[in-house]
């Protein structure tokens, strides 16, 4: 068992407990919920096997779905952003970047990292709330949930990455 696998498992457990025990109970203005568990996908290395990232993300989504009573919604959304992450990361780094490049505030720079995470968070929120609502009958509520949750999640991701890399 490698050290990287153990780190991922500990990180997985910490994000899971933070989300299930604390963050799932926060609903600012009735629509904005912080979805910190999406941070599992953000720091994936450039040379990380795609199957491993997809598997970790699907597992996190499945576990969150189990405890949040959202059958398959988080798993599908997490798998989607795990699928997009390596391609999106390649847009923000140079071609000659090392294979073991790990995106963070320090390594990418603030502006690039904010755009990188914001795109993934917005895609996640669009997929998550579209699948959860499964209709656009109340589009203003849907937009409020997507926008509020994306903004709140982005702020929490930046704070978490800043604290994690100190």
Structure overview:
The protein is mostly helical and 166 residues long. The model has no long low-confidence stretch (mean pLDDT 86). It is globular. Helix 2 (50-68) packs antiparallel against helix 3 (73-92). It has helices at residues 3-21, 50-68, 73-92, 105-108, 110-133, 139-164.
| Number of DSSP-assigned strands | 0
- Contiguous runs where pLDDT drops below 50 for at least 5 residues: none
| Helical proportion, percent range | 55-70%
Largest sheet: none
What characteristic shape results from the CA principal axes? globular
The helix-strand sequence is HHHHHH
- How many H/I helical runs? 6
Roughly how many Å apart are the termini?
27 Å
Q: What is the assembly state of the chains in this entry?
A: single chain
Mean pLDDT: 86
Radius of gyration of CA atoms, rounded to a whole number: 15 Å
Task: Assign the structural class, choosing from mainly alpha, mainly beta, alpha/beta, alpha+beta, or little secondary structure.
Answer: mainly alpha
Tell me the β content. under 5%
What would you say about this model in short?
The chain has 166 residues and is mostly helical.
Task: Give the SSE layout.
Blueprint: H1 3-21, H2 50-68, H3 73-92, H4 105-108, H5 110-133, H6 139-164
Helix pairs in contact: 1-2, 2-3, 3-5, 5-6
Name the features.
166 residues; mainly alpha; 6 helices; 67% helix
């Amino acid at each position: 068992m490698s050290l990287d696998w153990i780190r991922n498992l500990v990180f997985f457990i910490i994000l899971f407990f933070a989300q299930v025990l604390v963050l799932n109970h926060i609903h600012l203005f009735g629509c904005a919920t912080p979805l910190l568990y999406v941070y599992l996908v953000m720091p994936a290395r450039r040379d990380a096997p795609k199957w491993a990232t997809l598997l970790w993300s699907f597992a996190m989504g499945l576990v969150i779905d189990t405890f949040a009573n959202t059958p398959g919604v988080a798993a599908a959304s997490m798998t989607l952003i795990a699928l997009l992450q390596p391609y999106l990361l390649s847009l923000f780094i140079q071609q000659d970047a090392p294979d073991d490049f790990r995106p963070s505030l320090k390594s990418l720079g603030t502006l690039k990292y904010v755009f990188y995470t914001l795109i993934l968070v917005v895609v996640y929120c669009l997929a998550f709330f579209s699948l959860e609502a499964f209709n656009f009958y109340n589009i203003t509520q849907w937009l409020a949930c997507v926008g509020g949750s994306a903004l709140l999640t982005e702020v929490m991701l930046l704070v978490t990455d800043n604290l994690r890399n100190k």
